[in-house]
Design a protein that fits this description.
The protein is an alpha+beta fold. The protein has helices at about 40-45, 90-100, 135-140, 150-170, 225-230, 235-250, 265-280, 300-310, 320-330, 335-340, 350-375, 420-425, and strands spanning about 35, 55-60, 60-70, 75-85, 110-120, 120-125, 175, 185, 195, 200-205, 210, 215, 230, 385-390, 395. It has 2 domains: about 10-125, Phosphorylase Kinase, domain 1, CATH 3.30.200.20; about 135-425, Transferase(Phosphotransferase) domain 1 (Transferase(Phosphotransferase), domain 1, Orthogonal Bundle). The radius of gyration is 21 Å and the shape is globular.
Length: about 450
């Protein structure tokens, strides 16, 4: 059997042994470290000895397995992430997951049920979310293409925003996810979203205006100020959420070409002029996923477009909070409050230095995919595992942010990060039928203009 994760105060240093080992980035060499809330023997039994038949997916920092803990009526299907032994990044990921997700509970966040420390092994136990990821449904169609209709897309957009808003505004101190993307949004059988993979999460204390850290993330989703300076805030997560909203609206990937030497256009740069026109009442069907045809709610489409446009503004200070996006989607906030006085098209564009840095990061991400394609199972460029693009000492600051510092050329990167969400993209054991019937509201045909 397994026990729930410890209370927040007990989860601060779960990698310490019961013998009083000191907290550090790595356990002492050859230390006999054991502990956690689930035994290694139980996890090995649950996965038939970590059998390939139980493999959900794999990435640069480990493997994800499906298993069953307990027996009889108490049995529960779980997902078990086994981090690669001896990986410094895997150790950091383990710490980040237990310290962040181990203390939060929300219907739109994947639940951490327990963890295990066994010698140099680090394992995390999550609820199993069976219906794969938003990325797989939007871009791969899963096992037999299933179109995400508008009702489901709206539900996913709103639910993912609610989960992220909880991390930013209902957790104290706030949690910055740092890797929001379609592959990290799991779906249950009712297409209810759950934000997953907290391996890059950072804690931002109340007195800090930002956290400075290594530039890690997935190309196409990272906010400009983060790639330029290494400084991340909750508004950096907002930018990433805006990219996800654009994926839901357009059906396109965050990077429009998977060739490193072709056009560097991202979904955000492609969509910006179309978003501006839409907000001025000139919606073009080029912006909307053609698979939807006219089967969408025009009023909801207008709201989602407005949120995406506000979220992907170039400067962090001009973006709304995630809670404002939630309130606007639910009809509780006027458009003027969402926009904060920023008119359509006012967001400044990338300068030449930023554009060159994005081009370099794109090439690195493409090479990363080639190096890891044999073990990540990613079927497309954008879904390659999270990468590290440069080094910057991790720290926090209560000083005000400067306008923009000189951009830094990316340095080396680690192999892709294993992700429970990314793990659902490969080794599928068959899709659950789910609730594919009637939805809670009727979708009325969309209209060519925005109201």
């Amino acid at each position: 059997m397994y026990a729930p994760p410890p209370a927040p105060h007990a989860a601060v240093h779960p990698w310490q042994s019961g013998g009083g080992a000191t907290a550090s980035d790595q356990p002492p060499p050859h230390a006999a470290v054991t502990g956690g809330t689930v035994s290694y023997a139980d996890l090995a039994a649950a996965t038939d000895g970590f059998s390939d038949a139980k493999l959900l997916g794999q990435g640069g920092f480990g493997h994800v397995y499906r298993g069953t803990l307990g027996s009889g009526p108490a049995a529960r299907e779980v997902a078990i992430k086994r981090l690669r032994a001896g990986s410094g990044q895997g150790e950091r990921e383990f710490r980040a997951e237990v310290e962040s997700i181990g203390r939060v509970h929300h219907r739109n966040l994947v639940s951490l049920l327990g963890y295990c420390i066994h010698g140099d092994q680090r394992l995390l136990v999550y609820e199993h979310v069976p219906n794969h990821t938003l990325e797989s449904h939007l871009h791969h169609g899963g096992d037999g293409p299933t179109l995400l209709d508008w009702e489901r897309r709206w539900r996913i957009a709103l639910g993912a925003a609610k989960g992220l808003a909880y991390l930013h505004e209902d957790c104290h101190p706030k949690i910055i996810h740092r890797d929001i993307k379609a592959a990290n949004i799991l779906l249950d059988d009712n297409f209810e979203p759950k934000v997953a993979d907290f391996g890059l999460a950072k804690i931002q204390h109340g007195d800090d205006s930002h956290v400075s850290t290594r530039v890690m993330g997935t190309f196409g989703y990272m906010a400009p100020e983060y790639t330029n300076t290494g400084k991340i805030t909750d508004r950096s997560d907002v930018f990433s959420l805006g990219v996800v909203l654009l994926e839901i609206i357009t059906g396109k990937r965050p990077v429009l070409s998977d060739e490193p030497d072709e056009d560097d256009e991202t979904l955000v740069s492609w969509a910006r002029p179309l978003l501006t026109k839409a907000l001025e009442g000139q919606l073009t069907m080029e912006l909307i996923d053609p698979r939807l045809e006219a089967n969408y709610d025009a009023h909801e489409m207008q709201r989602l477009i407005a949120c995406a446009a506000a979220a992907v503004r170039h400067t962090a200070r001009s973006r709304p909070r995630v809670s404002q996006i939630v309130r606007y989607l639910e009809g509780e906030l006027p458009l003027e409050a969402l926009n904060g006085g920023v008119e359509p098209g006012q967001s400044e564009a990338h300068d030449a230095t930023t554009t060159e840095q994005l081009r370099r990061m794109r090439r690195m991400a493409f090479l990363q995919r080639g190096a890891d394609s044999g073990n990540t199972g990613a079927t497309g460029f954008v879904s390659e595992a999270t990468s590290e693009y440069g080094l910057c000492a991790s720290s926090s600051s209560s000083d005000g942010d400067a306008a923009q510092s000189t951009s830094r050329a990316p340095g080396g990167q680690h192999p892709g990060q294993a992700s429970y969400a990314a793990g659902n993209n490969v080794g599928r054991a068959g899709r659950h039928s789910g609730d594919l019937g009637a939805m809670s509201r009727r979708t009325r045909p969309g209209r060519a203009g925005l109201e």
